[in-house]
Specification:
Largest sheet of chain A: 7 strands, parallel
Order of helices and strands of chain A: HHHEHEHEHEHEHHEEHHEEHEHEH
Distance between the termini of chain A: 32 Å
Shape of chain A: elongated
Structural class of chain A: alpha/beta
Number of strands of chain A: 11
Number of domains of chain A: 2
CATH class of the largest domain in chain A: Alpha Beta
CATH architecture of the largest domain in chain A: 3-Layer(aba) Sandwich
Oligomer: homodimer
Radius of gyration of chain A: 25 Å
Strand content of chain A: 15-25%
Helix content of chain A: 40-55%
Strand order of the largest sheet of chain A: 2-11-10-6-3-4-5
Chain lengths: ~325, ~325
Amino acid sequence: MAKRTETPGRLDDAARAGWLYYVAGRTQDEIASTMGISRQSAQRLVSLAVAERLIKVRLDHPIAACLELGYELREKFDLKHVEIVPSDPGASSTTVGIAEAAAAEIERWLRRPDPIVLAIGTGRTLKAAVDQLPTIECPNHRIVSLTGNITPDGSAAYYNVIFSMADAVKARHFPMPLPVLASSAEERELLHGQQLVRSTLKISAQADVTFVGIGELGTDGPLCVDGFLAKDEMIELMREGAVGEICGWIFDGNGKLLDNPINERVASAPIPSRETSTVIGIAKGKRKFQAIRAAVVGRQVNALITDEEAAEFLLNA
Amino acid sequence: MAKRTETPGRLDDAARAGWLYYVAGRTQDEIASTMGISRQSAQRLVSLAVAERLIKVRLDHPIAACLELGYELREKFDLKHVEIVPSDPGASSTTVGIAEAAAAEIERWLRRPDPIVLAIGTGRTLKAAVDQLPTIECPNHRIVSLTGNITPDGSAAYYNVIFSMADAVKARHFPMPLPVLASSAEERELLHGQQLVRSTLKISAQADVTFVGIGELGTDGPLCVDGFLAKDEMIELMREGAVGEICGWIFDGNGKLLDNPINERVASAPIPSRETSTVIGIAKGKRKFQAIRAAVVGRQVNALITDEEAAEFLLNA
DNA sequence: TCCTCTGGTGAGTAATTGCTCATGGGCAAA
DNA sequence: TTTGCCCATGAGCAATTACTCACCAGAGGA
């Protein structure tokens, strides 16, 4: 709140100093001498001009809107990191743009000198992101997959991204030698009891950063298309309120994991702690709006890479 | 001139860094670590953002002294609009400050919802102002150049600002496909008789608002430097009493257009009516004092954007 | 193929800016 | 008038930013 008793001329001086500093580009020393005051006073006037919002800065570039949205999202949902890429209204692709952004973010983590554990989920978006990665040598890091790499028919899952990642990144990789869905809760326990799986699960729990795609449900969503769930199972799930999934873990509109037989069969590692690590959800596109919102409000993720369109939805929803 | 070949992502990065620095108020160190680059690179991106004019700074406070001067000028010379910016005693630039103010004024006009015709002259000051414009969409407005865009040597005139304007502002633009000076009065008539030119001239006569630079004469003034007039022609003109020019139209100390062969060759459109529209002159600097005074007293303009120094001269002259 | 040139990088350093603290003047209340 | 408070001031110092230099990688031409 501006002081009522503010000397009337003082704001004027602040404006003048701010003008000389920001518009005319003089140093505070020069301002001090032309205004006949000490350097410190000039500094104070300049910062007063800023504090009183006399100085308006704006950025004339499309990115500005994205940064703005990102900032608001970070505040609203208490996220650790948000990245918004411009929407391309015409494009129907669910990966263009965010794949590059996600790749850049993955790369930033991998370039860290201190050893980290990077966990990674699955899905088309992540695959596209990983395909954007340059070759990097980072022998200190460990990369672990959260999801199994065996499909119901026994073949390797195409969208299991850890192998694509291994092509580009020279680091120790830990795939998950499991199907995505076990046939029963008991089978899952059995599988998770295996020595190899247990150690991989243990590593995944230590992840410093996790990249996951956020999947929408629906009979033409990835879980159905890729044959993990039958159509009637999907319909039943949606009737129970399910709106999205991460690594196979199905959650409702509030982002709570569903308490139902499917989730008991999910063989993926649990999503690493959102308390102690960064879990970055990656998704865009109208069909995923509800899933993204649920994942964020239910704190299945604590960081987000998405596009303008989805960001606006999240802010207004 | 910005490199066309600028790596496309680089300006994006610069914008991002600039936003983080100026809008979000982060330090360059923080920016460096969030963007995964070195501190020096972050600094470079920030300064690139400034250099490429992605960052627009504006002072949103009427400085009392300037307001006062503006009011007195408006009264004394019966002007429709006066804007005074602070003087920077040290600076030799003839554009710093008024360019931003002029850009703000142009923007105010362009943001009007009802369709207007905005006419624009030429010159370094106007160019600098237009470079400050953000991108605006205003399909309802028409923007017309008063001066030709062809130099004596046949190349496009650099300081013909309508093309810079077209980069920033999405509106219908009407350049003037003429030289600045015709070789003779007859040639001018011939040129002005062309259909295309006639329709452009007609639009310019309907201008709701006009922005023109006020040029000083002198052998190192713009008309000579840019090669429109030879030195001896200039000397002759000055002996006849010429002190300034607007769009090439040369006037004497009382602001009366000179009745001489040069003015008969000026191919620019006439300055739109000061009775029915707003014609804003933009100029500052000691060398232009006489030209500004003449333009104002002779009512070649009926509005003014200048600086404190010139305003004081006008009040005391 | 080699050379050159452009443009980017990191390091080091100088310049500039921001912060804290002790001081003192002005003003209102006692 | 005196007291006490507020806040502007200047100094010194820490943090931050800008600049220069030497070097490197890739593009393009001889």
